[in-house]
Amino acid sequence: MAMNKYMHPRNIYRIPPDFKKLADIYPQFSSICRLDVTGKITIDFKDPRVLRVLTACLLKSDFDLDVSIPEDRLVPTLPLRLNYILWIEDLLETFDRTDNIKGIDIGTGACAIYPLLAAKKNNWHMIGTETDDESLKVANKNVKQNNLEDLIALRKNQSKFTLKYLFLEKNLQYDFCMCNPPFYVSLQEVWESRSPARPPPKNGFTGSPQELVTEGGELQFCRQILEESQELKDNILIFTTMIGHKYNLKEFLLDLKAEGIKCTTTEFCQGRVTRWGVAWSYHNSCDLLKLVTVKDKTKKKNSPITFVIPKVPDQSYTMEGVSNKLKFVLDDLKIQYKIITKRKNELCLNIIAYTNTWSNQRRKRRLQKQLDNELLKKPKFGSIINTPIENKGIIEQSLEHHKKDDVQSIRDCYNNDSLREKIEESNKCIMYGTVENNTDEDPIKRPNARPVDNASNITSEIKIIENTSKPNPLSQAIVKINWKEDLCSLSIEYLGGTGGKESVHQILQFIKNNWNKL
Ligand SMILES: C[S@@+](CC[C@H](N)C(=O)[O-])C[C@H]1O[C@@H](n2cnc3c(N)ncnc32)[C@H](O)[C@@H]1O
Questions:
Q1: Cα(281) to centroid(ligand 1), Å
Q2: 336 and 263, same structural domain?
Q3: Residue 340, SS3 per DSSP
Q4: Which residues lie below 8 Å from residue 225, measured CB to CB, with a gap of 6+?
Q5: Residues with CB under 6 A from ligand 1
Q6: Which ipTM was obtained for this model?
Q7: For atom 6 of ligand 1, which residue has the closest CA?
Q8: DSSP 60
Q9: Which residue's alpha carbon is at the smallest distance from atom 14 of ligand 1?
Q10: Less crowded by CB within 10 Å, the N or C end of the chain?
């Protein structure tokens, strides 16, 4: 659902751009337009080239900015960039700052989009920093071709810091800093990050690895800004950053709270994309918490569900003991996890489950045993290996005699759980036997045989099959272990997934029911 009505009240893109008008004025825009059956002008938002032309034309028509956007760099979506600038305007107002505003944009990118908008729209003085030489080169060209050198200065960051290196002169003063950090830890995370519970993004994908990926991801980047902000509290009035993942927002707010720092947040809503803004200040002249935030009212709050972990005789009731046990349970359930935060009294994990491995465990184990026996009887030593799809056929045959819901349960189970690994493991054994016993057999003579030379080939092939058929997550959640005095609690908060909130209730129930038994 489009969320234009939740954009900042002063955002001009609450009203969608008039494509007909743009097509009349800009021939390059006209060339990317198409007429739909109703005679309406549309464009293909999924095509990065189209996004580039649209952004360049809007920058010209709405801000009189001539901006070159390189093919291999991020195309800045204007509604979001404008939402961020407008929010900073609000923040400055609460601090009664109106004249001679000076700001810093950390990681300005090839378009220097924030400095250009801030300078052109508000006459703010901006410093834009960048680590990437190529982006910096284009950014300088963009500043120059808009005659904004008096207001914008760009700096190469060659340090390991985000801000500190700019303050060699101790008494430099800025009103704010802003940052759209690289959001991801790795390129793989770029592809896996979007919750399947949400509709796919309307816009095509743009951006280079250096713009999107940073060591430790955005949380680490924001933490670095926070750490440096403590040394720069007298140099910068308002520190701000954008955050792209909700689970990182929560963590970052806890960091700020732990340090006793006053802060405020906002949601930047535009199209199908939501980002978050966090601002903090060390100045007492204004209470940032009083700031009204623009909220996306379409989303209901997901409150975490919690249970107090009981003490189990002969088991260590310490952070390490409980964390290890939780990880063991998650491994056992084939639930993937990533540690987000590890503190003395808190462990925070982002978990992803692809199949329901926690329901009807006893029945599944019984069926699995039966099926294992049937399967191990079937293929003869030295026979051609079964691909997972062929295994599925064997499962279907073996299940003919079982009850309908049992069959479904095994089908679910097959998708990603230990049963499939067992089957494939058993096939691997058969395979090694085949290779060892038929070393001089030419695979070409056996039309149906797959040429195989060693064991690693087999595993890598299985992995490829697993990757390409990876289903959408069933459940994605934040799991937290928290110690207060000598009591430990475990909470789980639903983030997304096809299984809905019920899936996290079930996972918690499984952990509760089995904690004493494990
Ligand atoms: C997500 S892009 C944002 C670009 C631009 N601000 C925008 O909103 O379109 C992040 C940018 O930060 C730059 N960057 C990464 N680490 C940096 C650092 N330590 N200091 C300055 N820039 C950095 C990257 O090269 C990249 O251009």
A1: 22
A2: no
A3: strand
A4: 106, 162, 163, 177, 179, 239, 241
A5: 74, 76, 106-109, 113-114, 129-132, 135, 157, 162, 180, 182, 210-211, 214
A6: 0.99
A7: 108
A8: H
A9: 107
A10: N
The letter for the amino acid at 228 is E
- Residue 150 belongs to domain spanning: 4-9+76-297
- To the question of whether residue 386 is assigned a binding role by annotation, the answer is no
Query: Which atom in ligand 1 lies closest to the alpha carbon of residue 135?
Result: 27
| CA 59/CA 79 separation, integer angstroms | 11
Instruction: Locate 412 and state its tokens.
Output: 């679910």
Identify whether residues 293 and 310 lie together within a single domain: no
Kindly state the tokens that stand for 435.
């290779």
Q: 219 CA to middle of ligand 1, Å?
A: 14
Look up residue 469 and give its amino acid. Answer: S
Contact in structure between 77 and 52 (CB atoms under 8 Å)? no
Q: What is the pLDDT of residue 207?
A: 66
What phi, psi does 245 have (nearest 5°)?
Answer: -120, 130
Residue 317 and residue 245 share a domain: no
To the question of whether residue 107 is assigned a binding role by annotation, the answer is yes
Task: Write out the two tokens for 70.
Answer: 């390189």
Tokens matching residue 510: 């499984």
Residue 39 identity (one-letter amino acid):
G
pLDDT of the residue at 376: 64
**Is residue 134 classed as helix, strand or coil in its secondary structure?**
helix
pLDDT in the model for residue 60: 98
Query: Atom 19 (ligand 1): residue with closest C-alpha?
Result: 162
Per-residue pLDDT, 445:
32
Angle at 83 between CA 242 and CA 256, to 5 degrees: 30
| pTM of the entire predicted model | 0.62
- The whole-angstrom separation of Cα 361 and Cα 112 is 55
- Are 490 and 480 within 8 A, CB to CB? yes
CATH number for position 343: 3.30.310.80
Report pLDDT for 459. 27
Domain check: are 218 and 83 in the same one?
A: yes
Per the structure, the count of domains in the chain is 2
* Residues of the chain with confidence (pLDDT) below 70: 1-5, 186-207, 209, 213, 285-302, 361-365, 374-471
What are the residue ranges of helices labelled H in 359-486? 361-377, 388-398, 404-416, 418-437, 455-468
CATH number at residue 172: 3.40.50.150
pLDDT computed for residue 202 by the predictor: 60
Provide the token pair at 183: 């959001």
How many residues does this entry show for the chain?
A: 518
Last residue of a domain, one of 269, 297, 325: 297
Give 199 Cα–ligand 1 centroid separation in angstroms: 27
CA 45 → CA 51, 212, 358, 507, distances in Å?
Answer: 6, 20, 40, 38
